[in-house]
Amino acid sequence: MNGPKYRNRMPCSSYRPVFGSEEGDDNGLSLLRKVQLALMGGLFAFIAGSNFSLNLIKFNDRYVPEPFLVVWVLLSLSVFPELVPALRGMFRRPGYLIALVVIGFGFLLALLRSTDFVAVYGDGRATFLFVTGFCISHYAWKRRIEWEWLVLGMLATVCVLDALRPKIFEMDIDPTAVKVNMSLWAPVGVAIIGLRWKNVALLVFGFVFSVYFAKIAFFRIYYLGPFCIISMVIVWFVFLILGRWRGNLKFGLILLLLCVCGLAFGVRNFDAYVQSLSETASGRVHSIEKTSQFIDGLKAGDLSSESERLDSLNIVLFQPWRLAMPYGIGWRDSMDEVAARFSDLAVVSTMDSALLYVGFHYGIVVFYVLCVFIALYFRNCIRDNVGRYELVLQFSVLLFLALNCFLESGMLTMVPRALQFALVAGLVYQKRGVCGWRIT
Question: Is residue 201 part of a domain?
């Protein structure tokens, strides 16, 4: 690597993972400091990161977390003043500023045509927190600052609060409305951190909560979580077999033992699990019947059951001229316009596909710019010698995130889902990789 083109690159011989060593160095933080950061993250999750807050923080029967978020920011900066320059640097990043400009453009465009300010503001608030959460999570691991424990506190607290939510608020988990109000990506984020730190407890924590939410949410999309964690573990073992056994053998053996025990337990209790889903109408329809219908249609080559999402993908990829004029944010008051503009297709709203949501509300140009940024990211990873197996691990997680975007747009319209999705995307979107390995 010679010449100006490679001047700022880090050769493999001097490469250091984000935490200082491949054994999970945490920069020498004291136990008290770790607890403080995790508690601040947990407080943030209590305010805006979990669906628990949707039932607790209300004003005139509307979710209003803004005053509490302002207090949280002021409290965090007073307790951790060293985060001020890190925040200042993040806010000065061109990508973050461009994203804020795009969100502001969609917000102003919506105000010019809509009288439903609440609907417009709700989408704008969720998208803003999505961008901010992504940047916080991304720079927590990229810049070797203390935010990693803050992010872990957020994700773990979200899992606990969402698990307690149906019991505390005496919710009936049978109605289909619950299907979009459970945590999907927070357990995956905890599992990613556990895999990165070689912490079996965090990995098991994430997988158990992911399976639990898939059971009580009664919606097929929640199975993305467990399958994503399983795919990460499989790829990690590929890493181990192909030369990364030094310093990882003990963790690998423990993880292998847990996988064998978990597989045996799952096979033994699979029928009981399916039976528990069949006991309720929502579980039977969303988790069993629709899944069976999709598999049968896939075998027969007939995916008419997914026509709405397939039509959304068709518009974005093959009919982009229909999205040339951005409509502005606010999916609730855009349903009439969607039905009129796509009357020849099965599309009902932009809530069922984040791809269509971005293309319709912000314009197809913004959608393709995002695709270009993602493509450039992978190109830079390959050019900077991240390692082909590390790229496989990143790609496996990003593939599940992309599939989530294909199936719904809740990460752009609902505050808790936006923050959870963004935190996990920020963990994965790293040139140094998920585990900090460079395999050449």
Answer: yes
